[in-house]
Design goal:
Layout lengths: L1 E8 L2 E7 L5 E7 L19 E3 L18 H4 L2 E8 L2 E7 L4 E8 L7 E9 L5 E14 L11 E9 L2 E9 L15 E7 L11 E6 L4 E7 L5 E8 L2 E7 L3 H4 L3 E3 L4 E3 L3 E6 L3 H15 L10 E3 L1 H4 L5 H11 L6 E4 L29 H10 L3 E6 L3 E2 L14 E2 L2 E2 L1 E2 L2 E3 L5 H18 L3 E4 L15 H22 L4 E4 L9 H6 L2 E3 L9 H7 L9 E7 L5 H10 L4 E6 L6 H23 L1 E8 L8 E9 L2 E8 L7 E5 L5 E5 L6 E4 L2 E5 L6 E6 L1
Parallel strand pairs: 20-21, 20-32, 21-22, 22-28, 28-29, 29-30, 30-31, 31-32
Antiparallel strand pairs: 1-2, 2-3, 4-9, 5-6, 6-7, 7-8, 8-18, 8-19, 9-16, 9-17, 10-11, 10-13, 12-15, 13-14, 14-19, 15-16, 23-27, 24-25, 26-27, 33-34, 34-35, 35-40, 36-39, 37-40, 38-39
Amino acid sequence: MKILSEYKLGDMLLRYLTDEERHVGMMLIPAEMADCVLDKQWKLEPLAQYHTLYDVAPGSFAGGHSLACSDVVDEMGLVGQERRDDAIITAIADAAGRTIYHRAAWHAGLEALRVSTTFENNTDEPLTLDLLTSVNVGNITPFTPADAVGALTVHRVHSAWSAEGRLHSESVESMHLESSWSGYGMRIEKFAQIGSMPVRGWFPFAAVEDKKAGVTWAIQLACPSSWQCELRRQGEGLSMSIGLPDDETGRWRRTVNPGERFETPEAYVTAGRCGVDAASQRLLTVQRENWLRRDEELPVLFNEYCTTWGNPTHANMVKIANRIRGHEIDFMVMDAGWYGRGNLEWSECGGDWIPNAEMFPDGLKATADAIRACGFKPGIWFEAENCAPMSELFERDELLLKKRGHVLGSAKRRFLDMRMPKAHEYLAERVTGLLQKCGFEYIKVDYNDTIGIGCDDPDGLGEGLRKNMQGTLDFFREMRAAVPGLYIENCSSGGHRLEPSMMGVADMASFSDAHECQEIPIIAANLHRMILPGQSQIWAVLRKADSLRRVNYSLVNTFLGVMCLSGDMLDLSDAQWKKVDEGIAFYKAVRHIIRDGVTSFHGDVSESWRHPTGWQGIVRTSGGETLAVIHTFGGNFPASVTLPVSARRVRRIMCSENNDVYLGDGCLTVSLNAPFEAIAVYLD
């Protein structure tokens, strides 16, 4: 094995490796450790793993577990490599004309690479892909001898409804990813998410940390549909890949005709002298680049759902708007329940998107105008891609997704076929047209069920799903083009669509549905690894029965993302409103740090999020400024905590228990006085 080429990309070194058979693989390492690479018993991992429908299956007991590392991969050899602008393009091919283009892009300011794979069919016959990875990272770890026993930890991030973003860390040994006594047999750990909610189980993310060398490799996929990730062990090296799910996992196939190309979703990959927390922040530099409002001030929002509970009449909206005016709120968003007819439950009639004439006798424009007259930008909720049983759309089979020839349904929903121009025309009339007519400047796009493994397509269910979700991304782009300045919120029962491609077409996202739960700050903090806090909308649901400690707790939670208020706004006391105004003022003073900063994680939180104990400290730093957000939970917690900070003075404190705050010797020390309290400290 020898070095084909290498490129210094920021603090990373991208090294391409080859062998006598002209196979090509990549190694990504911290540039400062280039001279620390050891001579190990490597198996050269290819730039991409691929397989076509009638290829021989891989050996080494991989059948039924993986389609990677089959004989067809070994037949791919170097064709050429060139640098085009910010990207390195490497071409490999076999004698028959199967060609793969591996693209690795980077420019100054990024701490990760953007990688994708393109398959080109230069044969005389159609080829049906049933595996094609976006990225395949091999040679982990080159810094620790032999098979790095006891050194490697695999990190993944799990998600469940109202419990998003839990970090799972396991040793390679506990995952049975050690090589066998003879070196034979592939050790494989494959995990995936299947359906139109790409973050309903695992996030499309994995990291491997060499704790002895102090280096972490991390990958992330930008994909709104099904995906899979694999970790493989052959010999002394570990590899990890991510991309669309193979035929055995997600029923994905794609026929590529002679002369055609197919490109994978983009993946991000990084390697740094750090742990998993810092590696996740490095990947987020790519998401920040994709974020359309990365240089704009974060807004303050009010959403009325936890105020009216699905009864947003014109009278209610006007009453609430007049009560909250003058409190430095930017958007007032009307949630579900504004449509339909008669006494039907709002969940039964979504899809037609006709305003309820009894609730809005003068039409929605009158309501939007009234909200605007109170000083707010008006917003509205849709679940645009679905329809409910009492809607007319529910019976329009020609616009709906099919599975095995029948209309695809789930619980009380059917789904628009987002691949169809007529579906987009329907949404342009019923959704975008209403936004334009009424002057709404914000849309919350909800999505409360999944279509499962896929929908009918000539290439099968998995490819049907992929195309359908690409249609959803197109719909988001169409709305933005049709309504200049429109803010788009990505919601899917809270946090089921928190992946990079959806975040790239939205301005912010609902981080969770756990709006009034004590675990809100735990979920919000953990999501700092997966999405930008400046795109993570955190609700503070305020109740008239809340103590000032509870009000403070709810408001400080929002400093972990974008502030959104809801609750008993009509009935709050003067003291409660004073605390709300204090929270808004503090948020506006630190929102540039929330938007631009880098997060470090501290604390000791129990395994139970539902009944949390312990404490948590989140430190976010931008330039020479720092925001520290500290929470206590139930059970035992220390009398004080000390957090490392780089600051000279405390500029502002928000708390409810007269907490002592001391800054000295590069550390911030804060007293903790009560359970379920929150303290925010702004420093520079």
